[in-house]
Amino acid sequence: MTGFPELCATTMDRDLASFFARVTPDDVRRAMARSMPSADDFLTLLSPAAQGLLEEMAQRAHELTVRHFGRTMQIFTPLYLSNHCTNRCVYCGFNAGTGVARKRLTMDEVRAEGETIAASGQRQLLILTGDAPALAGVDYLERCTKILRGMFPSVTMEVFAMTEAEYARLAAAGIDGLTMFQETYDPVLYERLHPAGPKRDYAFRLGAPERGCRAGMRVVNVGALLGLSPDWRREAFLTGLHADYLQRHYPNTDVAISLPRMRPHAGHFQPATAVTDANLVQILLAQRIFLPFAGITISTREAPAFRDNIVPLGVTRMSAGVSTAVGGHASDDNADTVQFEISDHRGLAEFSTMLRSRGYQPVYKDWEPNAHVAGNRP
């Protein structure tokens, strides 16, 4: 059986330019009309020929989204627990070589952050750390989760790649989902962007989402950091194929996609390419048509007007009330620990008002963990 690593390698070798040169507008219309688009249909929707048909694609994406998700939007917010990191990722503000201040929240500070966020009305939390297991590893995440689970029905994580046993341990502690960005699916570029640190292991990271599925995570979210590679179409194609692979092999897991673009951060790295608003919309529409059941996340990396306008086009999950500083919700003294600059600074109430004005229901909670999960409310 062919696994995703083999599929990824084959796709990296594929001549997409020759494929795109043959695509016509009629091919794009046929691809968007299919009830079960193939991988080549998906690639057709990502082609330059599809750029002139974004309005038709938007109508199709909207129809599929309303059919499967209704007019709803899941809302979550991140909580940065630690920015200690042993990696040297050239594009990241947590890079071990940057001069940012380093901080790891104590358990009292974790509780204070959680209480501040919960008081705002948030019920879905994403916890984040850098990659420094000796300081903020599985034991630390387990202790944090047991505190936060008492305040939030859903606690997911975006941290370092783990083994299946480690994922299973955190699932038992109350983590119900994980986000794992491959950053770039190109192994040659990946090696250049990750010169040192455990994250340099491309294969171990590529296998992390599948290990999370096997370990019993309820939600597994994948994506590439758009802008790292000059070939954004190939990155978007592989992200969709990755999600499709996980959906077909792990039907008991909710598989989702995130579409982050590069943002300014500490350091001097410049993106390889500018993924424009039109490019990002095309990726969003193509992903929705190819994967009608997948959740799609757009974060506060994007500007308010852009986020407002794409609400009907296939997005199902957005962040609000965001701070990317460690302990940035409960204290104003942590600005020097920020990972990157966000674009949308609206709080939960203001963002929810926007959604309602557009006929959409903000969803703060749609899931309840099993009673046996540690830290669960009675």
UniProtKB/TrEMBL annotation:
Molecular function in Gene Ontology: 2-iminoacetate synthase activity; 4 iron, 4 sulfur cluster binding; iron ion binding
Cofactor: [4Fe-4S] cluster
Keywords for this protein: 4Fe-4S, Iron, Iron-sulfur, Lyase, Metal-binding, S-adenosyl-L-methionine
SMART domains assigned to the protein according to its UniProt record, in alphabetical order: BATS
Pfam family, one: BATS
SUPFAM superfamilies: Radical SAM enzymes (SSF102114)
NCBIfam families, A to Z: thiH
Protein name according to UniProt: 2-iminoacetate synthase
Phylogenetic lineage: Bacteria, Pseudomonadati, Thermodesulfobacteriota, Desulfovibrionia, Desulfovibrionales
